[in-house]
Amino acid sequence: MKLDEKIEILKSTPIFCKLTTEEIKDVADIAIEDEYRSGDIVFNENDVADAFYIIVSGIVEILKKGEEDQLEILAEKGDRKIFGEMAVVDELPRSATIKAKTDLMLLKIDKESFKRLLEKYSNISIEVARNICQTVRTTNSNYINDLELRNKQLELAYAKLKKTQDELIRAEKLSVIGKFASLIIHDIKNPMSNIRAYAELIKLGNMADTKIQKSTKVIISEVDRLTKMTGELLEFSRGEFNLNKTPVHFSALLENLIDTVREELKSKNIKIVSKLSY
After folding, report:
1. Is the separation of the CB atoms in 47 and 12 below 8 Å?
2. Does residue 238 register a pLDDT over 70?
3. Contact predicate 32/50, CB 8 Å
4. What is the C-alpha to C-alpha distance for residues 167 and 149, in angstroms, rounded to an integer?
5. Is 72 strand, coil or helix?
6. Domain tally, the chain
7. Are 37 and 100 in contact, with CB atoms under 8 Å apart?
8. Residue 277 binned pLDDT confidence (cut-offs 50, 70, 90)
9. pTM of the prediction?
10. Which domain-ending residue is among 103, 120, 137?
11. Beta bridge partners of 72
12. For residue 268, is pLDDT > 90?
């Protein structure tokens, strides 16, 4: 890279933009070109700070170790931005890892040369301080936004977990109800069989009595219907449900229904008039 190109790049950076052309020329003389491929690490967290960098072209990721030593992205920087200056100023180990997100072209200024620049041009110190403050603010803002996003994700995850838990509890309750219903249904079947058997006996013992014949027929029909319903409930409690369709004569169905409710309606002075054809 030619000296004039370096000067133009340095003029557009935040910490050198207020220097004169001659002053920037001094900086350009000590700036060394440095290249990295996408995915390369420029330096790692806790490394000794030996230089700071100006991005000529490309993007870097600022990474920080999180839980279980996983690297988390705090921020990104692109063309004409600087990084690594904070550790050079405070002489502490690197506070973050810098990784090349794309291919990088950098200008590198070593620590001792940078210190001499600060001593020679005091206004650079102010710009460096401003840049550090801006970096800290941006990093804090990104970190807060990331925390808020994670909190929202946690809230959604908790809501889903709570819903799943409620569904599991409901399913468990239904399972218990199903088992209990299964036991009751088994117990119901025996008295239903007895009622039907006695109705058959009454019917056989009163062949001449039309009213008894009709009444016992209704009893037997209703017991059969109830038995069928209990069987369906039993299947449902086991997680099985089969829809058994059979042809039904509509007139016969209506007649059975009328016979079922006739006496109750009669007690209320309600008369049923039907005209059924077979």
Report:
1. no
2. no
3. no
4. 27
5. strand
6. 2
7. yes
8. low
9. 0.52
10. 120
11. 64
12. no
Question: Residue 87: inside a domain, yes or no?
Answer: yes
Greater confidence (112 vs 182) lies with 112
DSSP 8-state assignment for residue 238: T
Comparing 27-41, 71-85, 201-215, 228-242, the range with the smallest average pLDDT is: 228-242
> What is the DSSP track for 110-150?
EHHHHHHHHHH-HHHHHHHHHHHHHHHHHHHHHHHHHHHHH
Chain position carrying tokens 């990295």: 36
Q: How many Å from the N-terminal Cα to the C-terminal Cα in the chain? A: 106
Report the CATH number that the domain containing residue 23 is assigned in CATH. 2.60.120.10
What separation in angstroms does the CA of 268 have from each of 34, 215, 261, 273?
A: 103, 19, 11, 15
Task: Write out the E strands in 168-261.
Answer: none
Q: Give the residue from 75, 98, 120 where a domain finishes.
A: 120
* CA distances to 41, 54, 68, 215 from 34, in Å: 13, 10, 32, 104
Residue 278 has pLDDT above 60, yes or no: no
Q: What pLDDT does residue 84 have?
A: 86
pLDDT attached to residue 60: 94
Helix axes 21-30, 111-120, angle to 10 degrees: 160
The span from the CA of 215 to the CA of 220, in Å, is 9
State the angle between helix axes of 250-267 and 210-237 in degrees (0 to 180), rounded to the nearest 10. Answer: 110
The verdict on residue 43 lying in a domain is yes
Give the separation between CA 255 and CA 257, rounded to whole angstroms: 5
Q: Give me 268's structure tokens.
A: 């209320």
Confidence band, pLDDT 50/70/90 cuts, at residue 113: confident
Residue 110 confidence (pLDDT) above 60: yes
Rounded alpha-carbon distances, angstroms, from residue 160 to 77, 153, 171, 173, 251: 37, 11, 16, 20, 53
Tokens representing 39?
């995915």
Is 137 part of a structural domain of the chain?
no
Residue 230 lies in a domain: no
Q: Which domain holds residue 61?
A: 3-120
